[in-house]
Each structure stands twice: as structure tokens, then as C-alpha cells.
Give the backbone structure.
Amino acid sequence: MRLGRCRTPSNWFCLRATTDRITRITVCTRPFRAQGPRLDIEQIGQKNVVHNYGHGGSGWSLSWGSSGIAVQKALATGERDIAVIGCGALGLTSALLLQRAGAHVTIYAKELPPNVRSSLATGLWTPDSRICLEEHATPSFKQTWQNMARTSFQTYQTFLGLPGNPVEFIDSYVVSDDADTERRHTLPADGRPKFAELQRELINDLIPKSEEYAPGSHPFHDRYMRRNTLMMFNLAAYSRMLMADFIANGGKIEIVEFHTHGEFAALRQRTLINATGYGARALFDDQSITPVRGQLTRLIPQPEINYGLFYKGVSFVPRRDGLVVQAVGENDYYGFDDATTVPDQAEANFAVNTIASLFNDG
Ligand SMILES: Cc1cc2nc3c(=O)[nH]c(=O)nc-3n(C[C@H](O)[C@H](O)[C@H](O)COP(=O)(O)OP(=O)(O)OC[C@H]3O[C@@H](n4cnc5c(N)ncnc54)[C@H](O)[C@@H]3O)c2cc1C
């Protein structure tokens, strides 16, 4: 019953995946753009607006690198009193990087963590998750993406080992009933285009090697299993830490909702970073943002559980701020162009019961 060289069986039989332990079901829309995130600078009236939105399922993962690009553009305008619109993953990292460069920063946002969409993410380092379509992954996009991914990865290393474990590495096990333990990025039969997959090609050196386990050599009986090592964000602790750092550095926050970008004219700052995420769709009438619905089911935390699982299209992530179970479907079109945010109890039960079935049949 041993699994790997460094696991004890007690780590394995205590996951309490039952529907009565569900504490919360949350739904959120990923801000997907076929051509990738928007990072250009636009003149709107008297304002220089640097865009930093549209990161699909990779917003946390690419945040430090993407915001680094936005901050360079904002500082190049010569201004040192800068507004950041939005307080999610991209707004917070933009604001902190601006402060580190010596700027005075005010965040203007409708919502703050934990009430932003970013707080409803899975919490894994997934830098190419729905980041763009393959047909838009040009050599220049790949170079930018690689820089964003490497910068973010390195920055995340500085948050390891801190109180509350904002960031940590976990082992995660892909379990399969057949010999193919690769997560399949199957294409839908209707011929829709493929999403870009960039990690193996461009940052393979950052990905720890996976390890295969033969049937019978692990607790899941005659199934097949592969171990991956993943970086995980405990988003409650992590976003609190980012907020606290921003305030400690003298940052100001104003709660405000902009109904049109024309309202930016009322701000005193001449340079703004627009990190409104999915909100940019309405604010800038940017129909290039497609919502991709994702639902998380939270279970009562179990601090002793430190491994993730993936089985039959369901992922389990051992977040300290609530175990996260999620149906992710057969491919990345799951939830595509679906902006509904009503929780689906049946989907939640299916996700929990699928993970539970790994523990219940032996
Ligand atoms: C189910 C799910 C799982 C995910 N898992 C992961 C993952 O594991 N790893 C990963 O890297 N990414 C993941 N993502 C993607 C990630 O969550 C997003 O890419 C990221 O949250 C986008 O951050 P943001 O700062 O752009 O937007 P948001 O978090 O939406 O923040 C936008 C900010 O702008 C403000 N705002 C918007 N409109 C206005 C307005 N009109 N006026 C004033 N303020 C406004 C909001 O109040 C908020 O403060 C996941 C997404 C989903 C839905």
C-alpha cells in the first residue's frame, strides 16, 4: 500500500470526500481572449490607459510577469502617481510592482478580495491554461508568454515557506482506469480550434519530472497512476498578504464602480493600469473576451491532506483554505462561452462523488 518513497499510507486514506462536507459552491468566469491577454497602451481622453486583462485560466500564474510588462509601460509615461483599476490578481500585482518602483499607487475597484473573481480560482500554477488559441500563439506571443511565465515562477519562489503558506508545492496524482495517464486535451468533434499548449515547448525546464506507478503499486488498486509536482496558491492567505503589503507600502484603495471608461476622466492620475479582468468586457465593450465558466466545490479543510488528485475529468486540490473539487470536463471548451454563475449542485455532487469513488472501492 506504499505510494512513492516519501508517503505514508496514513496520508492516503483520510480524504473525507462526502457531499455533506461541502461548505460552498462558487462559480466564476475566466476572461478568455483568443489572441491572449491585452497589454497595449491606449490614450483615452487625457489618460494613458495600460491594459492588463484577459488572462483566461492563467491570471494568477502569469500575474507577476504580465504586471511587470504593464508597469514598465505605465512608468514609461513619466508619471509617478498612478491609478490601478481593479484589485484582483492582476491589479494587486501591478500595484505592488509600481510601489516597488517608487510610484504612489491608488487602487480603484468595485470589489476587493475575497469578493473578486480571482478569489474563486483553483489556485494552481497553470500558466498556459486557456491563455490563447494555438493559431494566435505567434513567435512573438510565445516570447512574451515565456517571459511572463518565467518571471512569475521566479517571483512565486519568494513566497514559499511564509506563515500561512501562501504558496507551496504539492504532489498531485493523475489516476486513470487505462494506461494513458496524460490529461487528454481532446478536441471537440465540431472542429473548433485548439487552445495553445506552451509549457512543454517553452518552459519544460521549470516542470519537475513526473513518475509513473504501475497498477497494484499504490493505494488505487488496479488503476494507473502518475505523479506530478505542482505549485499551489492558498489564495485566502496569499491575497491577504498582497493586500497587507500594498497597504503597508502606503497604498490607497477607493471603492468605486466605473460604468464607462469615460468616467476615468474624473481621476486625478494621468496614467492608469486597467486590470478589470472579465469586467473589461462591459467597461470597454470588448467582445473579444469570452467567458469560460468554472465551478469550484469547497470541502471542509483537512490540513493533513497534502496531495492533489485528477480522476475521470475531476480535479482535487488540497488547498489549506478549503479543499477544492472541480469537474473540468474532457477538454478546455468545458464551460466555454457560458457566463452563468448559478451554482450547479448536481455538478458539485458529481465532482465530489467521482473523487470519493477512488477511496470507496477497495
Ligand atoms: C474556476 C476557475 C479556476 C481558475 N483557476 C486558476 C488557476 O488555478 N490558476 C490561475 O493562474 N488562474 C486560474 N483562473 C483564472 C484566474 O482566476 C483569472 O485569470 C484571474 O482571476 C483574472 O484576474 P483579474 O485580476 O484580471 O480579474 P478579477 O479577479 O476579475 O479582478 C477584476 C477587478 O476589477 C474590478 N472591476 C471590474 N470591473 C470594474 C468596474 N467596472 N469598475 C470598477 N472596478 C471594476 C473588480 O471589482 C476586481 O477588483 C481560474 C479561473 C476560474 C474561473
Remarks:
- The radius of gyration is 21 Å.
